[in-house]
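User: I'm putting together a teaching handout on how multi-component assemblies are represented. Below are the sequence lines for each component of a complex, exactly as they appear in our records. Could you produce the 3D structure of the whole assembly as structure tokens, so the students can see both representations side by side? Please keep the chain order the same as the input.
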Amino acid sequence: MNLRAIAAIYKFEMSRTARTLLQSIVSPVISTSLYFVVFGAAIGSRISEIEGVEYGAFIVPGLIMMMLLTQSVANASFGIYFPRFTGTIYEILSAPVSYIEIVIGYVGAAATKSIILGLIILATAWLFVPIRIAHPVWMVTFLVLTAVTFSLFGFIIGIWADGFEKLQVVPLLIITPLTFLGGSFYSISVLPPVWQTITLFNPVVYLVSGFRWAFFEIADVGVGISLAMTLAFLAACMVAVWWIFRTGYRLKN
Amino acid sequence: MQSVISVSNLSKTYASGFQALKSVDLDIRRGEIFALLGPNGAGKTTLISIICGIVNPSEGKVSIDGADIIDDYRAARSLIGLVPQELTTDAFETVWNTVTFSRGLFGKPKNPAHVEKVLRELSLWDKKDSKIMTLSGGMKRRVMIAKALSHEPQILFLDEPTAGVDVGLRKDMWNVVRALRASGVTIILTTHYIEEAEEMADRIGVINGGRIILVEGKSELMHKLGQKQLTLHLQKKLDAVPQDLAVHRLTLTNDGHDLVYSYDTQGERTGITALLGDLNKAGIRFRDLETTQSSLEDIFVGLVGQKQ
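Assistant: Of course. Below is the structure of the complete assembly, with chains in the same order as your input.
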């Protein structure tokens, strides 16, 4: 294991984050606060509790998940796409590093960034609504697992994309709709039965449900199923990354 | 001499169907400076990219100091430093950080003293805290060389290192290259400038249309270069070379108006004095004379031209 290479990539990516602190940290925090103002205060004041949880608090896990997903995908896809775009990827490819080390470096940094962001949003939420976390360990587990999984997903997008448009398309056309329709702001039990069934094909439902369970012990699907689905998606991403490096897809041809 | 890079039967066909390399065999000797010459699109960069692990080969094998570039890529790549042709740098990073990053990427422990030495040699020390985007093109080229040298490679690839580079940088660069060679580093460079190959290289390879068409020691090539021709423009047209002059093996050209004499400048005697004496005796007078030397460029253009 070339640990020094992992450290070098990780440090490089983290310093990129530090350079772009404003857009990396401040803008998600502001947009989350806006969600609180709109959904929590304005609309939430007209909605009574959902399954015994105040609406303002109910949306916190969903909001954190939403930011976690979009930021993980954005960070990781940009992190690997940019060196491909500028050409500096030559150095990574010609270095004595395995693809696992490259992935750990890039995905690790992207995940770290979105985990920090998730925690900052959680702290911000605390200012607006009282939050209790029933299962802190599970909360952290879902946080980390989701950040890693979607950073890996972002990494794949960053390799697949051959232009800045494509880099934007997947977060915009796939991630955002899936999170909005994935029960971030509501319990899927409020949907008509047909839509409840369709929703179960949305992987984000399982993430939000499991994450919300860690907070309030209320869930749309069993926590075991949530965990299994998350791990399944992680495994699928790993297989895709393995295939990318084995064939050299978009990297070595 | 032992070869440090061994390329055998290497072919590359890109997804577009373009065949960039056609069954290339090449051995690079340990400690030499090898110049790879060829026109644009000949396959120079593809060859280097495959050796360095940036492009997958379609067929064939490459080993670096005995390590296969695919099965044993870690051992193979850790020996190599690459300075690619394109100026690609991390614009927002400082010089120091980007060079340190390269060292880490190649698994080498931190060594600020070595990084400092490399930066000083390349006249980059003053700029170590500057962001790369603020540097001139020549300075960026230096940064790329510094990155490649940061991890103390045994083999250095310089792909068109002097394209668009001023005289000062060229001199610095060749000083660095000479010092590296003296310390035992093998250097492979591609260039368009034939004088550079002549000046720097121990051996020269010519690639064209994806094939290596010539690999020769520079001294052998210089020997060929040593052939000069003396052309005498005669006052009166001759129908044939006179018998008395047969010993000089002259040829009559330009419809009998020119006499051409070939000789070796590196030989002990060129025979020019004797020839002129004999011409005088034979009563052959000439208006003018000129000498021409075939350059590496002529040989190169000839070779490349033939194959096309």
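A couple of points students might notice: The mean pLDDT of chain B is 89. Chain B touches chain A at residues 14-15, 52-56, 73-78, 80, 82, 84, 86, 88-93, 97, 100-109, 147 (CB under 8 Å).
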